[in-house]
Amino acid sequence: MTRKDRALAMLVTGLLLVPCAAHASYQSSSDTGVTALDYIENNRRAERENRLTEEQKQLLADAEAMKEHLRHPLDTAAPAPVAFEGDDLAYDERTGDFTAKGDVHILQMDAHRFQGADVSGNLQRQEITIPGKAHILQMTPNMARVTLDGYRTNYNYATHTGTMADAAGKIDHYYITGKRFEFYPDHYVAYDGTATKCGAKKPDYHWSAEKMTIYPHDKIVLEKMKFWIKSTVLYQRDHYVADLNPQNKHQDLPTLGYDADDGVSVEYGIKKPLAKHVDLNLNLRVVQHGGWRSNYEARWTNRKMSAAVVYGHYEDGDSKWIRRQPSFLWSYGDHIAGSPFYYSLGYEYGRWYQKGIHSNHTSYDLGIGHDPIKMGTYTLYLHTGYNLTKESYDGSKVQGLTFDGVLTKDFDARWAAYVGYHYSKKNARNSLFDYETDDFSKKLEGGFSYRLDDRNRFVVGTRYNLDAGKWDDIDYYWYHDMHCSELILRYRSKRNTWGIRFEFTPW
Fold it and tell me: Which tens digit of pLDDT belongs to each residue from 494-507?
């Protein structure tokens, strides 16, 4: 990640955090600012993922219609009312037992529906049993979105608990199968099941486990887990916890790539919790023209503060490498008195190595910015800061201001564009290391994105050197969505070099 890319990420989040093993759903390797378009595309992707199906829309409409026919005020402390529809209904008022046959629909007013051909139960105990095939659809507020088809279903509406056998469907954005499901108000358990975010009939990748405990928007706990790429087991664990927080974009899948500098590369990230607030991040990478280029970090994060010890190789968007042997990094950020303005503090001290040079590297960062400013379909990001960098190798010290301003425009579902101005006193001419530095202080960046169809997107990113008055980079990208994976082709016209990256759809 370049200094500019890191600045944009800070502008987007409102906090300056040191780099970690996580990355965006779509991520362009770039030093031309096209990460601004990645941010727009990620929002579009999230919108598509959260878009309601026609069945879900109908369920919400039916639940709202039930409210209009209530005879008495709704008791919010009691279970939501339930309505039954079927071709043949029978009810015993003394016992509460009922049977329903034909096309049976059981709708609870909190947007929860069961469908089956043969249903029995007891209204007093609020229990139902569907011995044959059943379909469950859930859009209950503050609970997971559930769409499942299975057999031998038992469910209690009062406790929101139940079971289903030989089921398959979706829980939120994850495709789930299991020989047996258990339903609870805040989690779901699947036995001898699979989970994947790939919606293909034969997924490119998936987990399998003897037991999966799914806490929506939080985590999934897997016992006797295997991770599969197609029909091959990539790795297995007796106990494994995966983060399902939608804000965490950690990639738990390998990435393949090629460019002129590195040749063929393979990258694989592993995140392992060590203790409360402490994670071990392993970014394993091997390149054809350099061998192992991995990095490792132990990171503590708590609310607005982060600290980490890092070791290994790091590469910026311009294919410039350094090796930390190791480094300590710290950052803190917060809004100013509840205003849209925020500040950020950053510090690094460590041993840096590049091109035969070893140096004790010290960096201090102070940043002030404003939350993204929305102006219709335009979004403005503003940030300024001060950096001080010192090197023991030659006693050098570079200090000065930075400024970043980026304006994006989301035209419609197909078009998006950006333009940015960036200034940094620190550059490759006055710095010992050229990692995360440009060859100049002032630059303009701009570009656009055009979606040809659901599977293909074309991007142009440019960088203009204001110090020299010339175009420094003009890059072209082609993104091809292969449903469960993505192919990204990059051509750098000013350098006449090609690069390609293949990655699976992130969790």
Answer: 999 999 998 876 55
Chain centroid, CA 385 distance in Å: 28
Rounded Cα–Cα distance for residues 24 and 62 (Å): 37
pLDDT digits (tens, 9 = 90+) for 390-446: 999 999 999 999 999 999 999 988 999 999 999 999 998 999 999 989 888 999 999
Domains 54-72+80-243 and 250-504 share a fold: no
Q: Where do the structural domains in the chain lie, given as residue ranges?
A: 54-72+80-243, 250-504
Are 26 and 487 contacting, i.e. CB atoms less than 8 angstroms apart?
A: no
Give CA–CA dist 391/360, Å, rounded: 6
Q: Are strands 278-287 and 291-292 parallel, antiparallel or unpaired?
A: antiparallel
CATH number for the domain whose boundaries are 250-504: 2.40.160
Residue 227 to residue 240: CA distance in whole angstroms: 10
Query: At which residue do the structure tokens 């569907």 appear?
Result: 130
Fold of 54-72+80-243: lipopolysaccharide transport protein A fold (2.60.450)
- Burial class of residue 490 in the structure, from the number of CB atoms within 10 Å of its CB (0-12 exposed, 13-18 middle, 19+ buried): buried
Other C-beta atoms within 10 Å of 306: how many?
A: 21
Closest by CA position to 437, among listed 337, 318, 351:
318
3 state SS for 428-439: CCCCCCCCCCCC
pTM of the model: 0.77
